[in-house]
């Protein structure tokens, strides 16, 4: 009874669209004459700042025949620029008390540091120096080719399942090479990269007019804006190449793939469905559908497969799974599920249950309670993404890079609150269908396992 | 992040691990992660993966630079047409750190309550730590602590497992339980507007776990399967072997039960375990987030005030084994394309005065990205992607660990460099520049933890679990700032004892056998 009252309270609140405490992220946005997008957001809850540069180049559109190049290049950005010698970037950030990293994703490559806020100018200087110039040698390249090859071994080749739920699933589910190649890279391609390729890539993609600079933290926005001018305004813009066509032809027939795994002890299954376009009205319902199917331990897939049927030992999944979130990409996307299951069971059994859950959702849609709770769950998750300066910088940069409008960070929740059960049902009818699905059943190669 | 906030995965310390999005990153950093995000212990600053150079490395880098210049004339010339400041701006002076207000109290039943308002997002995070580690009762009932924790939130006297999960869902909540070396820790969060409901759930789960028969049976089966799954990953195998080597029969030497032993853990044993250890006088409740402290205190009284105190069994006196010589342990993994190497040595408990010097020493060796180890075996030699070292300090003792995963053919050379860098820290003082940088990095890391409710809750819980001084945060900066090169050197001399270290290697023994033989006595353990 208590239960029901609480749910009513939650759903009323969601319906009214008025929360106990709405949050509004301050956003200052403009562009320098050289085309660099600049986002500044004050945040005074902690004495820290994140400075992040997102370049509009991800592994999706890296050059054909050079798999893994976008990621290898990311490593080269730490190998030296005009005034910052190899690896000194890390030295300087850490000597200022900060953390740093960079990562390559589908549609961007980012570089960021989070540090005590008094280090903001140092971070801006560092990022401006490597946007302005890259100073690397063939020897640095060889070194990082080795490092990246070890990374691929450590994260893929020497691990059970080899990250098959994104690497292999994307390659099998998609037809356009841009979406269907090995994003981490074949070792052969990584080792074949030349210093000229590195220089050309820098010149082509690492221009101010192909980037967003985001500063979030315990700083004064106006003062930081002046520093941005000081360090970035004189970096010349470059002609940025036209983005290739990343569109994916519709899948018309189910794909089932079987793989064996020399390192795994237990079988695992990965499933992917093509999702509606991020800008379409179907997207928000699809995001909530994902939460209803696999948003937590109460969700339909987990309850059916792990608890009722006892076939799976775990269940995970999501949108932009293992690579990001619902907003930090720009192009075709998969909804992914991944499960490790018990020996003696089969992928067919799991897919049979998935089909039955999908059929129910297509026929009846979500329950009122499921939908109301999914909206609360979404809001709670969204606040998690806004908790740290790095999390906010990620969303602000993505909205600036892909939509030229970082203020969308404050416009997300109402869109999700307006979603109806009928819309979720309709999305299930359109996308949660067999012909739109690819699955990989990965079983141990070893006898007796 | 949003799409993958929920990633259920088995975790060696049991339970639920969030897999980190680190793929295709520059380095494998895990800054200030939550305790339960595996490996289930907090190490400092960057939890598992860290980083560094040596005199030889420096020389190579300089040579490389000279050549670079010629190659890159085109780009530099083009870039140099515009203004660029050649040196970093002078660092701004450090500001005073405003640590959040921390109010501590004890309820009549012995429950320690620590409230820390942090208004970053409209959420709260509660961490309830019970002093019952995974090695509790492991000799007679291996796995009992892990199973008791795992089934704790699968049903109470008045709620089914599904009801708990659905109620959590309705408040934007999450609740997970992890068991590390010293504690069973429940971490729960929700939107702050539903804080009273979250406390109701946390209280019900810890006070009235029902251990339903069907849930116990399922948990036993799945726990056994998860252990099988973990045993296919080199990192798990290496860590388990290292803990065994360093701690022997001490509870810290226990990671997981043999799958076959799990069926012997009865439902009654779980109930007894919970009744013994899940009691208020054995618990600390830390709540961080968007709330008003007096109101929250009243809520804690309401939900936990009637929890009954129970006398605790006397703590058994356990002795940490002393190590007499270096020993190499090899876990043979035929077909492995890398060797996963861990070098470990015993370290002090966290409450020791040696903690802060060791934490800083670790950062210079391999606990930061610009550390000696990373500069050497990654940035100079290209042997590895993810060298790291960590000071994993616990309540009763700890481990200093250095590690790297490397291609088979450089296994021997990597061990040579790892040992060399350890010994170098014992023999020569670090430079003033290195120490200054490590101090700022160490202090900055603590400031960065203030961004996240979960990180702060874990940091503060550690103060209580490991019995640190309650002004730990407030005095941390001054203690770090006072360190001298001599203290760092003596910390290394004491804890980087390569001659008594345990070296664990998971890899294809046939391919690496000759490379590792020169480093000491080799025991092939499986």
SSE map:
The complex is a heterodimer of chains A (449) and B (526).
Chain A: H1 2-16, E1 28-31, E2 37-42, E3 48-55, H2 69-76, H3 88-95, E4 99-104, E5 109-116, H4 120-132, H5 138-157, H6 167-173, H7 177-180, H8 187-192, H9 195-205, E6 211-217, H10 221-232, E7 255-261, E8 268-274, H11 283-294, H12 300-308, E9 316-319, E10 334-340, H13 347-364, H14 368-385, H15 389-403, H16 412-417, H17 421-431, E11 437-444
Parallel strand pairs in A: 2-6, 7-11
Antiparallel strand pairs in A: 1-2, 3-5, 3-6, 4-5, 8-10, 8-11, 9-10
Helix pairs in contact in A: 1-14, 2-5, 4-10, 11-14, 11-17, 12-13, 13-17
Chain B: H1 55-71, H2 73-79, E1 103-106, E2 112-117, E3 123-130, H3 144-152, H4 161-170, E4 174-179, E5 184-191, H5 195-207, H6 213-230, H7 234-247, H8 267-277, E6 283-289, H9 293-304, E7 327-332, E8 338-347, H10 355-367, H11 372-380, E9 388-393, E10 398-407, H12 411-427, H13 432-448, H14 453-465, H15 472-481, H16 485-495, E11 502-507, H17 509-516, E12 522-524
């Amino acid at each position: 009874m208590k239960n029901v009252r609480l749910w009513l309270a939650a759903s009323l609140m969601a319906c009214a669209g008025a929360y106990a405490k709405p949050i509004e992220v301050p956003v200052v946005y403009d562009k320098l004459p050289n085309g660099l997008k600049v986002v500044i957001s004050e945040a005074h809850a902690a004495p820290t700042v994140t400075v992040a540069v997102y370049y509009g180049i991800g592994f999706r559109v890296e050059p054909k025949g050079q798999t893994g190049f976008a990621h290898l290049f990311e490593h080269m950005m730490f190998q030296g620029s005009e005034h910052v010698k190899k690896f000194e970037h890390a030295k300087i950030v850490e000597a200022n008390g900060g953390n740093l990293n960079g990562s390559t994703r589908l549609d961007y490559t980012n570089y960021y540091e989070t540090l005590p806020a008094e280090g903001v100018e140092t971070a801006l200087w560092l990022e401006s120096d490597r946007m302005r110039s890259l100073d690397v040698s063939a020897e640095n390249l060889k070194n990082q080719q080795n490092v990246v090859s070890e990374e691929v071994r450590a994260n893929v080749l020497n691990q059970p399942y080899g990250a098959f739920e994104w690497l292999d699933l994307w390659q099998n589910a998609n037809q356009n090479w841009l979406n269907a190649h090995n994003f981490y890279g074949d070792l052969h391609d990584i080792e074949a990269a030349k210093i000229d390729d590195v220089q050309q890539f820098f010149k082509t993609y690492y221009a101010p007019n192909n980037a967003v600079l985001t500063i979030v933290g315990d700083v004064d926005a106006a003062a930081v804006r002046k520093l941005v001018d000081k360090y970035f305004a004189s970096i010349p813009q470059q002609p940025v190449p036209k983005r290739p066509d990343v569109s994916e032809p519709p899948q018309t027939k189910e794909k089932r793939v079987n793989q064996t795994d020399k390192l795994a002890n237990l079988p695992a299954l990965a499933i992917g469905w093509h999702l509606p376009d991020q800008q379409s009205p179907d997207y928000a319902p699809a995001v909530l559908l994902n939460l209803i199917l696999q948003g937590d331990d109460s969700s339909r897939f987990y309850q059916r497969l792990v608890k009722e049927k006892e076939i799976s030992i775990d269940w995970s999944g999501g949108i932009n799974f293992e690579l990001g979130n619902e907003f930090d990409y720009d192009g075709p996307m998969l909804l992914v599920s991944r499960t490790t299951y018990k020996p003696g069971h089969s992928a067919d059994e799991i897919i049979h249950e998935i089909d039955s859950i999908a059929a129910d959702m297509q026929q009846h849609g979500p329950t009122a309670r499921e939908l109301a709770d999914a909206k609360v769950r979404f809001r709670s998750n969204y606040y998690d993404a806004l908790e740290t300066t790095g999390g906010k910088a990620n969303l602000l940069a993505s909205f600036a890079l892909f939509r030229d409008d970082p203020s969308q960070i404050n416009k997300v929740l109402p869109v999700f609150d307006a979603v109806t059960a009928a819309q979720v049902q309709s999305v299930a009818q359109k996308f949660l269908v067999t012909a739109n699905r690819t699955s990989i059943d990965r079983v141990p190669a070893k006898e007796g396992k | 992040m949003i799409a993958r906030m929920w990633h259920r995965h088995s975790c060696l310390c049991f339970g639920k691990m969030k897999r980190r999005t680190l793929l295709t990153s520059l380095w494998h950093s895990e800054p200030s992660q939550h305790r339960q995000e595996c490996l289930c212990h907090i190490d400092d600053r960057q939890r598992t993966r860290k980083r560094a150079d040596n005199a030889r490395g420096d020389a190579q880098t300089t040579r490389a630079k000279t050549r670079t210049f010629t190659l890159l004339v085109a780009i530099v010339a083009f870039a140099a047409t515009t203004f660029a400041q050649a040196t970093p701006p002078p660092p701004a002076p450090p500001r005073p750190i405003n640590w959040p207000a921390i109010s501590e109290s004890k309820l009549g039943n012995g429950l320690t309550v620590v409230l820390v308002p942090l208004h970053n997002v409209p959420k709260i995070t509660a961490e309830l730590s019970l002093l019952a580690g995974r090695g509790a009762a492991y000799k007679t009932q291996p796995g009992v602590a892990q199973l008791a924790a795992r089934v704790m939130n699968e049903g109470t006297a008045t709620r089914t497992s599904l009801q708990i999960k659905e109620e959590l869902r309705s408040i934007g909540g999450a609740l997970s339980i992890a068991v590390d070396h010293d504690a069973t820790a429940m971490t729960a969060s929700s939107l702050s507007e539903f804080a009273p409901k979250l406390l109701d759930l946390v209280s019900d789960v810890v006070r009235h776990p029902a251990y339903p028969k069907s849930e116990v049976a399922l948990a036993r089966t799945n726990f056994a399967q998860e252990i099988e799954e973990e045993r296919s990953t080199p990192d798990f195998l290496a860590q388990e072997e290292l803990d065994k080597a360093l701690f022997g029969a001490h509870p810290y030497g226990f990671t997981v039960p043999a799958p076959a032993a799990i069926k012997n853990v009865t439902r009654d044993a779980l109930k007894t375990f919970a009744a013994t250890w899940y009691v208020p006088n054995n618990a600390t409740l830390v709540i961080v987030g968007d709330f008003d402290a007096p109101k929250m205190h009243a809520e804690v009284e309401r939900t936990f005030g009637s929890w009954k105190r129970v006398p605790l069994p006397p703590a058994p006196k356990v002795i940490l084994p002393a190590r007499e010589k270096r020993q190499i342990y090899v876990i043979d993994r035929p077909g492995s394309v890398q060797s996963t190497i861990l070098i470990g040595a015993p370290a002090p408990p966290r409450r020791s005065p040696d903690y802060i010097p060791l934490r800083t020493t670790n950062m210079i060796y391999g606990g930061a990205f610009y550390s000696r180890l990373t500069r050497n075996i990654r940035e100079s030699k290209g042997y590895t992607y993810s060298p790291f070292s960590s000071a994993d300090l616990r309540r009763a003792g700890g481990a200093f660990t250095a590690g790297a995963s490397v291609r088979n053919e450089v296994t021997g050379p990597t061990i040579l460099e790892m040992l060399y860098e350890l010994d170098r820290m014992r023999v020569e003082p670090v430079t003033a520049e290195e120490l200054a940088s490590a101090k700022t990095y160490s202090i900055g890391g603590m400031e960065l933890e203030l961004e996240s409710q979960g990180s702060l809750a874990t940091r503060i819980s550690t103060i209580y679990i490991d019995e640190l001084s309650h002004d730990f945060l407030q005095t941390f900066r001054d203690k770090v700032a006072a360190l001298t090169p001599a203290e760092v050197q003596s910390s290394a001399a004491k804890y980087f004892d390569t001659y008594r270290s345990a070296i664990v290697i998971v890899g294809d023994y046939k391919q690496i056998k000759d490379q590792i033989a020169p480093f000491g006595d080799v025991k092939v353990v499986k």
